[in-house]
């Protein structure tokens, strides 16, 4: 009789434990004084602040536990397989600041600010920087010659300002002036040697970014009911901290540099109207703003494949090919430029713009679509941002609403989020208008699992992300005082609230038009992906009781 013995493989048991401690401390001290001498008013403020951050990480590893359920590091094997690791990061920001205010009879206003900031992210003379600012105002409506107009114009104020601010934040790098060394090990001839290497080039000449901003504005109040304001500003940021390409001969990653200059020129208007007719009250507000963003200097370089940083364009512009419809026949393909992969009718046709130019400045194609045919095709910087708020009340009934939106901005999705069947994804109902020999006037290219041509970054997958959203609506009723008389209650207010009730946009169906803006990404912008939780439509009911 033959018996077969089965080999039982040993079970691997291992345990990793880690601990992370983060400490953020903020300390602020300030003193102020105020004194009037007749019509002269003076205010003085001085202070200092200190911000600290310390993060410590410690981990340990053991394997080959004799008792599987005893989850303690010391219970593992005390041999060459054990491991541990630890790291520590910290930064410090120290500031001294002061402010001086002067007014004469509340008609002529002046303010001066200065702050001296020091950061651990820079070294030497670049560690500290001084940032001053000044503002002045003239309340015309308080002048004697304005006396006859005060019944109509209750306030008229002109104001202007100039100032500088600094920035020392550089993504997650705590010591950009001296990038940390990488510790490791290598084995040669059976012997393990410890290694230390530098991976990122350091830059000891780093200094603060400086933003210089100037602006003028006017405030106007009519009949003590209508408030109007207008602001015009010019903001220029020099020495923006970023990484530019360096020679690969160094063998190191590019360092952070004070490399770019960006200009922002914009305006903002606001209006608020308050009215009352007996028990009926109404307030309506509106604001509209715009900004023209432009990269002025990048030391002769450009960077980015989809999100592009390029002189003459806005920060985080969209970069890609210009789509020129869909190929309808093989004859069109043969007559067109060389593109990507094997082209078939129904594929996207791209504009060939990389050749020479004719006498009128129009591009003459070179017969092939390459990276040289990519260009700036859109902008992620919102233009014409607006908001509208309304409040109505009659006796105990109240109604309020908030509408907000953006008038002009571009959005972008790619891959299986918008391209039919890419990555073996299902064809969504709104993608059914794809090209076939029977449907040549289609919105989408032919369905293909393998096409490399139709997945290129291009205007085909860019859409307007402008939108208008009914952000909030609330209706409520405050019970009459007779319900709370002779009780310990002051008031009872019942309300029904709705958020994100309606959105009007031409962006892709099912996707939030604000999908471009991801605070977890570099510069707060992410493009292409659509795997973000959408804005949630919420209804709530509440009771507000005051004692």
Automatic annotation (TrEMBL):
**Location in the cell:** Cell outer membrane
Q: Known InterPro entries for this protein?
A: Beta-barrel_TonB_sf, TonB-dep_OMP_SusC/RagA
Q: What keywords are assigned to this protein?
A: Cell outer membrane, Membrane
| Predominant place of localization | membrane
Q: Which domain of life is it from?
A: Bacteria
Protein's name according to its UniProt entry = SusC/RagA family TonB-linked outer membrane protein
Q: Which organism is it from?
A: Chryseobacterium formosus
């Amino acid at each position: 009789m033959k018996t077969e013995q089965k080999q039982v493989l040993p079970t691997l048991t291992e345990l990793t434990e880690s601990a992370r401690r983060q400490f953020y401390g903020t300390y602020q001290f300030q003193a102020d004084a105020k004194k009037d001498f007749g019509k002269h008013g003076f205010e003085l403020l001085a202070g200092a602040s200190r911000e600290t951050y310390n993060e410590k990480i410690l981990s340990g590893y053991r394997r080959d536990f004799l008792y599987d359920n005893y989850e303690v590091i010391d219970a593992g094997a005390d041999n060459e397989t054990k491991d541990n690791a630890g790291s520590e990061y910290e930064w410090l920001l120290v500031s001294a600041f002061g402010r001086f205010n002067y007014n004469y009879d509340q008609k002529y206003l002046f303010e001066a600010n200065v702050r001296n900031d020091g950061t651990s992210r820079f070294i030497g003379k670049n560690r500290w920087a001084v940032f001053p600012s000044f503002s002045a105002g003239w309340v015309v409506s308080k002048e004697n010659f304005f006396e006859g107009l005060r019944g109509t114009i209750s306030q008229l104020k002109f104001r202007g300002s100039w100032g500088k601010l600094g920035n020392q934040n550089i993504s997650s790098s705590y010591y950009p002036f001296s990038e940390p060394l990488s510790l490791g090990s290598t084995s040669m001839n059976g012997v393990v040697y410890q290694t230390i290497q530098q991976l990122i080039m350091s830059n000891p000449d780093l200094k603060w970014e400086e933003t210089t901003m100037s602006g003028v504005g006017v405030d106007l109040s009519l009949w003590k009911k209508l408030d109007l304001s207008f602001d015009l500003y010019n903001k220029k940021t020099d020495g923006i901290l970023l990484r530019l390409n360096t020679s690969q001969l160094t063998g190191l990653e590019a360092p952070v540099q004070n490399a770019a200059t960006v200009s922002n020129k914009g305006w903002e208007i606001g209006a608020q109207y308050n009215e009352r007719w007996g028990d009926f009250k109404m307030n309506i507000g509106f604001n509209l703003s715009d900004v023209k963003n432009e990269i002025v200097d990048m030391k002769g370089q450009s960077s980015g494949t989809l999100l592009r940083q390029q002189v003459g364009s806005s920060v985080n512009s969209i970069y890609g090919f210009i789509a020129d419809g869909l190929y309808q026949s093989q004859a069109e393909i043969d007559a067109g430029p060389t593109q990507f992969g094997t082209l078939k009718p129904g594929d996207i046709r791209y504009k060939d713009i990389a050749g020479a130019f004719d006498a009128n400045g129009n591009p003459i194609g070179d017969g092939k679509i390459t990276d040289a045919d990519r260009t700036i095709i859109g902008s992620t910087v919102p233009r014409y941002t607006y908001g509208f708020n309304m409040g109505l009340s009659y006796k105990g009934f109240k109604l309020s609403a908030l509408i907000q939106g953006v008038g002009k901005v571009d959005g972008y999705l790619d891959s299986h989020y918008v391209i039919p069947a890419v990555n073996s994804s299902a064809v969504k109902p709104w993608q059914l208008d794809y090209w076939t020999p029977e449907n040549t006037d289609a919105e989408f290219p032919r369905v293909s699992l393998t096409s490399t041509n139709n997945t290129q970054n291009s205007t085909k997958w860019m859409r307007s992300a402008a939108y208008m959203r009914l952000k909030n609506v609330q209706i409520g009723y405050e019970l009459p005082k007779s319900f709370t008389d002779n009780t310990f209650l002051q008031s009872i207010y019942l309300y029904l609230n709705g958020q994100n009730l309606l959105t009007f946009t031409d962006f892709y169906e099912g996707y939030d038009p604000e999908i471009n803006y991801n605070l977890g990404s570099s510069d707060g912008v992410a493009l292409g992906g659509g795997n973000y939780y959408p804005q949630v439509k919420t209804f709530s009911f509440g009771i507000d009781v005051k004692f």
